[in-house]
């Protein structure tokens, strides 16, 4: 077993485990503060790899994520210029009618960004700091909460051990860092797989142009199914089909794929192409989606979890990465507050961040359940109408949940509380209205 001593010039060593989106960004935050930063990633360097395996091809980047990128000077040049603004959602009805629903206020938009490109840019940015070292092909196997000693598996069966003052677990939903937390007392953990899976399909350009209007997040809501499409710089769209696994499994031939699309997404067939659909549907199996909640996020002054390692959320609010990026800002703010004293910063981080990450996990799950309600009842429709009315009469109150989550840094749990308050007001209003109407009717009757 080869051993490497990381301590240089008496600077504290921060080991970031996982060089995905959150890990790579976090490395920049710690490097900016002057720590010796060592990043350990199980995969090879994706900037050199021929094929980059992973989840969704593109993602929606919104205010929280952009603010975090700005903190490390990366928002505009590298990321925003390579993103495609989506000013509104475009709802595709079964008949093929398209109706836009704008986001927030006029001029507000979210960005469609390429996941692989964003990750590569973040790695390159981290590497520009002389106090950062990226170690690829290092898979964390075990670590000690007492000493900070970590053991990594290397290709060809060898192992390496290294030690750090702080271990930052950014190793995703199935975190190896988190395993150590599970062995300890008073650590809360829950994970839920939803019955839906997702599959990505590509809509190629038509005559060199986007096949649909590019500045929209296209949505085909179909009760228990849903398809969305986000634009890419190469003028393709990545369509993501969300559907219960049992429905995916019912389709086993090309003809059945076309039959299914004809029934639910007829306008998408000529756009994706029947032959492409027949082929691409069977290229990869549908992927699972998991929601992970845990607390606390730290062990003593040695280790902290961020990003999906702390809170994997289902993707129906487009907030997983945005929340992970915001984790980095919140931690940074607390580092300022407590003068970089890990023994004070880590517990404070758990105290502040757990309620917010749990709130966005719940909200994303609520959105998932809501999107899959079979019958949109009249009462439900009426409540939504009242929501919209209150927001248009009282925009300064900022009570629109989507607006607060997507376009502000209002703490997630506060956004949820305000939204519950608004619901309560509407329900009471409805109740009062109904009682008033009943009393009036009774009076007239008499
Ligand atoms: P990951 O991206 O999972 O990165 C973890 C890294 O750790 C990986 O590089 C992995 O190789 C490495 N690793 C794992 N184990 C080890 C180990 N033992 N040792 C060393 N390294 C290890 N979020 C949004 O904000 N907007 C969206 O529009 C959006 N869309 C989504 C669509 C889908 C279909 C899905 C599934 C998710 C979506 N998300 C979205 C969520 C987003 O993908 C995640 O929140 C984000 O990737 C989390 O980043 P992360 O760095 O924490 O984890």
Summarize the structure.
It is built from 14 helices and 20 strands. The strands form four sheets. Strands 7-6-15-16-17-14-18 form a seven-stranded mixed sheet. It has a six-stranded mixed sheet with strand order 9-3-2-13-20-19. A four-stranded mixed sheet has the order 1-12-11-10, with no helix packed on it.
Number of strands: 20
Number of domains: 3
CATH 4th-level superfamily of the largest domain: FAD/NAD(P)-binding domain
Largest sheet: 7 strands, mixed
In DSSP terms (H or I, runs of 4 or more residues), the helix count works out at 14
Mean pLDDT: 89
Listed once per kind, the bound small molecules are: flavin-adenine dinucleotide
Q: What shape does the CA trace take? A: globular
What ranges have pLDDT less than 50 throughout 5 or more consecutive residues? 1-7, 374-398
How does this model look, in words?
Helix 1 (21-32) packs parallel to helix 10, helix 2 (63-71) packs across helix 10 (320-337) and helix 10 runs antiparallel to helix 11. This protein is 40% helix and 24% strand. The chain contains 14 helices and 20 strands. The protein has 3 domains: 2-89 and 101-191 and 290-360, FAD/NAD(P)-binding domain, CATH 3.50.50; 193-288; 362-437, no CATH class. It has helices at residues 21-32, 63-71, 75-79, 115-127, 177-182, 245-250, 254-264, 268-272, 274-280, 320-337, 342-371, 378-393, 401-407, 412-445; strands spanning 2-3, 13-17, 36-40, 58-61, 84-86, 88-92, 98-102, 110-114, 132-135, 139-143, 149-153, 159-163, 166-169, 188-203, 216-222, 225-231, 237-244, 287-295, 298-299, 303-305. The strands form 4 sheets. The chain has a 7-stranded mixed β-sheet with strand order 7-6-15-16-17-14-18. A 6-stranded mixed β-sheet has the order 9-3-2-13-20-19. The chain has a 4-stranded mixed β-sheet with strand order 1-12-11-10, with no helix packed on it. The termini are far apart. It has 446 residues and is an alpha/beta fold. A hairpin with a 2-residue loop joins strand 15 (216-222) and strand 16 (225-231). The structure holds flavin-adenine dinucleotide. Residues 17-23, 40-43, 55-56, 59-60, 139-140, 170-172, 176, 198, 240, 289, 307-309, 315, 318-322, 324 line the site of flavin-adenine dinucleotide. Keywords: FAD, Flavoprotein, Membrane, Mitochondrion, Mitochondrion outer membrane, Monooxygenase, NADP, Oxidoreductase, Pyridine nucleotide biosynthesis, Transmembrane, Transmembrane helix. Residues 14-328 form the FAD-binding domain.
């Amino acid at each position: 077993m080869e051993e490497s001593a990381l301590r240089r010039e008496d600077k504290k060593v921060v080991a970031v485990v996982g060089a995905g989106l959150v890990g790579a960004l976090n490395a920049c935050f710690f490097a900016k503060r002057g720590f010796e930063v060592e990043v350990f990633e199980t995969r090879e360097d994706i900037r050199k790899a021929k094929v980059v395996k992973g989840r969704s091809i593109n993602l929606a980047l919104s205010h929280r994520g952009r603010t975090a990128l700005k903190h490390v000077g990366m928002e505009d040049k590298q990321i925003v210029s390579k993103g495609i603004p989506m000013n509104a959602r475009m709802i595709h009805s079964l008949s093929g009618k398209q109706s836009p629903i704008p986001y927030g206020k006029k001029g507000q938009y979210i960005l469609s960004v390429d996941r692989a490109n964003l990750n590569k840019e973040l790695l390159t940015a981290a590497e520009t700091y002389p106090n950062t070292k990226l170690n690829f092909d290092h898979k964390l196997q075990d670590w000690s909460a007492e000493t900070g000693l970590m053991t990594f598996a290397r290709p060809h069966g060898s192992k390496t051990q290294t030690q750090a003052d702080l271990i930052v677990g950014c190793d995703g939903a199935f975190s190896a860092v988190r395993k150590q937390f599970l062995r300890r007392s008073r650590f809360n953990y829950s994970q839920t797989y939803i019955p839906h899976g997702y599959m990505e399909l590509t809509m190629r350009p038509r005559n060199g142009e986007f096949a649909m209007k590019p500045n929209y997040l296209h949505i085909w809501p179909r009760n228990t199914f849903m398809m969305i499409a986000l634009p890419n710089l190469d003028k393709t769209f990545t369509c993501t089909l969300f559907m219960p696994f049992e429905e995916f499994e019912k389709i086993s031939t090309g003809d059945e794929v076309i039959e299914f699309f004809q029934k639910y997404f007829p306008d998408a067939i000529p756009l994706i192409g029947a032959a492409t659909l027949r082929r691409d549907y069977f290229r990869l199996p549908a992927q699972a989606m998991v929601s992970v909640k845990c607390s606390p996020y730290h062990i003593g002054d040695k280790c902290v979890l961020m990003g999906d390692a702390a809170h994997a959320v289902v993707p129906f609010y487009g907030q997983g990465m945005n929340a992970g990026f915001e984790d980095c800002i919140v931690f940074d703010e607390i580092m300022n507050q407590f003068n970089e004293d890990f023994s004070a910063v880590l517990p404070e981080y758990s105290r502040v961040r757990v309620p917010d990450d749990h709130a966005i996990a719940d909200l994303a799950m609520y959105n998932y359940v809501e999107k899959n309600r079979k019958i949109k009842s009249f009462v439900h429709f009426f409540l939504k109408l009242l929501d919209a009315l209150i927001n248009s009469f009282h925009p300064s109150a900022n009570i629109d949940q989507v607006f607060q989550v997507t376009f502000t840094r209002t703490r997630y749990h506060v956004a949820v509380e305000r939204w519950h308050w608004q619901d309560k007001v509407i329900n009471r209003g409805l109740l009062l209205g109904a009682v008033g109407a009943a009393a009036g009717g009774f009076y007239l009757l008499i």
